[in-house]
Amino acid sequence: MSGLVNALVICAVVVLVIARQFRTSRVGTDKRWWVVPAVLVFIAAREPGVIDAHHRTEAIVLLGAELLIGLATGAGWAWTTRIWAEPDGSVWSKSTKASVAVWIVGIGLRVGLFCIGALLGVHQGSSALLLALAATLLVRSGLLVWRSQSLAPAHEQSPAHEQSPAHEQSPAYGDDVPQGAWKERV
To answer: Is residue 132 in a domain?
Structure first.
């Protein structure tokens, strides 16, 4: 695949992810949460030149740093995402303002790595970015699924009707982001 196609794939995935993260969405607890990251890894692995042959050590260090930033961004994004359980047992999520900060820092660090690579003369293709994006999505999805397994539906968490209606919502991680009426399956 050409660099242009990879760039378009990266842009499409990032736009999709950013657009969807601030909508209320159902956390999929099925076994398919790893599929999109796997497809991104497959696309990245098919491209030759993930490691610059003329600057092998520098390219490996930059790729490792890129993957670490991707893992940290995914973990930060997952831990700053608000999750809650509905009475029917379904688990929902919505990113918070802190999630925006995680994305801004992650993108800033990636731009910094790209600049360092350019200063060192390392050829940097889009494959490293695809791998880091896959790591971000894999960690975020895995942590959300893991976190969702510890939530019980609202009616199981408190004795029936002992609390006022304002307190019937199950506890959720994150700031007080209002739950939207529109819900989308992740």
So the answer is: yes
Question: Is residue 45 a part of any domain in this protein?
Answer: yes
Burial 112-139 (b: 16+ CB within 10 A, else e): ebbeebeeeebebbbbbbbbbbbbbbbb
Six token digits for residue 77:
């994004």
Report pLDDT digits (tens) over 59-78.
899 999 999 999 999 999 99
In a 10 Å sphere around its CB, with 0-12 CB exposed, 13-18 middle and 19+ buried, how is residue 62 labelled?
Answer: buried
Q: What angle do CA 12, 135, 93 make, to 5 degrees?
A: 75
Q: How far apart are CA 70 and CA 137, in angstroms?
A: 8
Residue pLDDT, tens place only, 121-175: 988 878 888 899 999 999 998 999 899 888 766 555 444 444 433 333 444 444 4
Q: Which residues pair with 92 in a beta bridge?
A: 26, 84
